[in-house]
Amino acid sequence: MRILGLDFGEKRIGVAVSDELGLTAQGVSTIVRKNNRQVMDELRQLINRYDAKQILVGYPLRLDGSEGIQCEKVNRFAGFLETALGLPVIKWDETLSTKEAEEILRESDVHWKKRRQVVDKLAATLILQDYLDHSSRNTG
Q1: CA nearest neighbour of 53 among 108, 123, 3, 115
Q2: Domain spanning 2-139: which CATH class is it, in words?
Q3: Among 4, 37, 39, 80, which one is most buried in terms of CB atoms within 10 A?
Q4: Rounded-to-integer distance, Cα 98 and Cα 106, Å
Q5: In what order do the strands lie in the sheet with 52-59?
Q6: Cα–Cα distance for residue pair 123/2, rounded to 1 Å
Q7: Please, is 40 exposed, middle or buried when counting C-beta atoms within 10 Å of its C-beta (0-12, 13-18, 19+)?
Q8: Using CA atoms, how far apart are residues 134 and 12, in angstroms rounded to an integer?
Q9: Torsion angle defined by CA atoms of residues 41, 47, 135 and 104, in that order, rounded to the nearest 10 degrees
Q10: Where are the domains of the chain?
Q11: For the segment 50-78, what is each residue's pLDDT rounded down to a tens digit?
């Protein structure tokens, strides 16, 4: 079963997808947000292309584990996704995933202009891979 992983942002949404066995995550795209309709259209296309059965959304907890303002935005977005797309939505702690993605790109000598284009997709991949690793450890 494939899972679509999202790194939610107000301007961009990074997208990753799992393989059918739920072992690996691969970055797919970055959706540049114009409006909710456009975002839903692009997500529907990706869900259909990959035959995704679940959506995982990065949940930006604070370092102390508490919920902040961004969590409220993700909660609204997750509810909207569930209603609009009819798929279960899982929220997964994404603490520091974007920072980790930026560090990986910096260490790989990716030019800063290119980094801006791929950081959200990489963050979505890291979030989804963390979820997949956690799930395999707890079911194996």
Answers
A1: 3
A2: alpha beta
A3: 4
A4: 12
A5: 25-32, 12-18, 2-7, 52-59, 89-93
A6: 18
A7: middle
A8: 26
A9: -60
A10: 2-139
A11: 999 999 999 998 878 888 888 999 999 99
